Amino acid sequence: MVHERVRPGHVGGEDNTSIYTGQTAVGTYDPGTRLDRGGNALLGGDEPTTMPQLMTQGATVFNNVCANCHQRDGKGLPGSFPPLAKSDFLMADKTRAIGVVMHGLQGPVRVNGQTFNSVMPDFGLSDAQIASALTYVRNSFGNQGEMVTVAEVAAVRAGGKKPASALALAGGTATGRARRK
Fold first, then answer.
1. Coil, strand or helix: which one is 112?
2. Among 174, 126, 175, which Cα is nearest to 153's?
3. Is the pLDDT of residue 49 over 80?
4. Which of the chain's termini has less CB crowding within 10 Å, N or C?
């Protein structure tokens, strides 16, 4: 048995193409998901206006964008990403939910009695995609809410204010409930 001397950080031996192709090109990662961020291709370009249209497009947006962190069952990842399933934070304030999906969220937030502190980026979704995703999650995973319209999302966007933090979104508290005055 002959052993080759291998430099630190390198592996010796023949290439095993069943586990490594030898390709070392650098390229953009493509996870294979597709989401038309500029329009409503799923609806033939039409703006979703009915609950069935919003739910259909919302399921697509959720599965391509939101499920990566919040998981396909909406239960999130304990300690990392909050649940959308039966979420007090999501259901307490529709306008706040629109702002979170539109602008992202950073900082501690309390959902269903647990504190989460991670970052949700601004995904650059259209008003129709935000309306449909929120209609979907607010009516799935044990949640029961009214639909979110494209007009409601447009009105929040027209307001132009970006929230400073999760605390600002929650009315000065890190819970899903608005502070009592």
1. coil
2. 126
3. yes
4. N
**How many angstroms separate the CA atoms of 65 and 70, rounded?**
9
- pLDDT value of position 78: 93
The pLDDT of 136-141, averaged and rounded, is: 98
pTM: 0.70
Note the pLDDT of residue 41: 56
- C-alpha distance from residue 24 to each of 20, 21, 27, 78 (Å): 10, 9, 9, 36
C-alpha triplet 52, 81, 31: angle, nearest 5°: 70
Contacts of 174 (CB under 8 A, 6+ apart): 108, 109, 110, 115, 166, 167
Which pair of tokens denotes residue 114? 């647990």
Alpha-carbon distance 154 to 125, whole Å?
12
Report how far residue 78's alpha carbon sits from residue 12's, in angstroms, rounded to the nearest whole number. Answer: 41
Average pLDDT over residues 41-65: 84
Pick the CATH number of 46-169 from 1.20.1250.20, 3.40.980.10, 1.10.760.10, 3.40.50.300: 1.10.760.10
Q: Is the CB of residue 85 less than 8 Å from the CB of residue 65?
A: no
